[in-house]
Every structure is written in structure tokens, then in C-alpha cells.
Amino acid sequence: MPGKKNLAELLSTMCPALDPDEYAFLTVNSEQRRRLTVPALMEFHEREGITLVTRRADAEKEGLSFAFPCRLITLTVHSSLEAVGFLAVITQHLAEAQISVNAVSAFYHDHLFVPTEKAELAMQVLRGLAAHTSEPTS
Question: Is 56 within 8 Å of 23 (Cβ atoms)?
Fold first, then answer.
């Protein structure tokens, strides 16, 4: 089943879900990655190194340096990878609320990493956006 592309439908049915865990971003080189046993939620290879997103508790347990302690919000609507403007509208609203976001689009859903201390505010912004988008227009 293909994901949704209609922007109004995506926004009104995004159903954000806040993961209870706290995550962190860190970077390692190829040799370090081979030795690490820390499970990664996400791994991305860049020229400068390998970015890992892992549970903060796992990074701390291994004594790893990390940045951006954050919470994960999953937009549970099945969005198409070809949807236009969905994340642009969302990140604009979060920016207006002074919330930084690292967005990741996966096959079925979009995922937002937001600062831990602003996670609840981000959820309020997203729920408000969904409710406002689903209101009938006159």
C-alpha cells in the first residue's frame, strides 16, 4: 500500500507518538563502529565519520561522548517518500515555537528528534497543527 501524498490529509492524520526513551547522536570512525556493541536506532555514513543515533543510556553505559540529547516523535501516518511539503510545514511550526528538530524519513513514517526538554511542547505544537488542519474551511 503506497503512502499518503495529500498534504492536508497528512497533516490532519499525522498522529504524533512520543517514544519514552531518550536518544543521543554520536559519531565514530569505521574501526570504532566495528568494535561497538551499542545498538543503533539509526546509522548514517558521512565522509567525516559514522553518525549513530542510540539510546542515551546505552551511550552513557559505554562511556561514549554524544550530542543532542533528544526524544523521538514518530508521525504515525503512512507518508509517501514522495510527499511534498509535509516536513516543511511541520518544521516551520516547530521553528516558530523555538524547537530544533532533526527529521528522518523512513519507508513508512517520518520521525522527529527534538531536544528532550522541548518534547512535550513539540507534541502540543504537532497536535495543534493536526487539529487546525482537520477543521473544515469556510
Answer: yes
Q: Specify whether the backbone of 74 is left (phi greater than 0), alpha (psi in -120 to 50) or beta.
A: beta
Beta-carbon contacts of 121 under 8 Å, excluding residues fewer than 6 positions away, are 97, 99
> Which three three-digit cell numbers place residue 73?
516523535
pTM listed for this prediction: 0.93
Q: Which domains does the chain have, with CATH numbers?
A: 7-134 (3.30.2130.10)
Q: How many CB atoms lie within 10 A of CB 49?
A: 15
Measuring CA to CA, which residue among 70, 35, 36 is closest to residue 53? 70
| Calpha distance 119→99 (Å, rounded) | 9
pLDDT one-digit tens code per residue, 21-34: 999 999 999 999 99
Using CA atoms, how far residue 115 sits from 35, 77, 112, in Å, is 28, 22, 10
C-alpha cell at 80: 509517501
Instruction: Count CA within 13 A, CB hemisphere, residue 114.
Output: 29
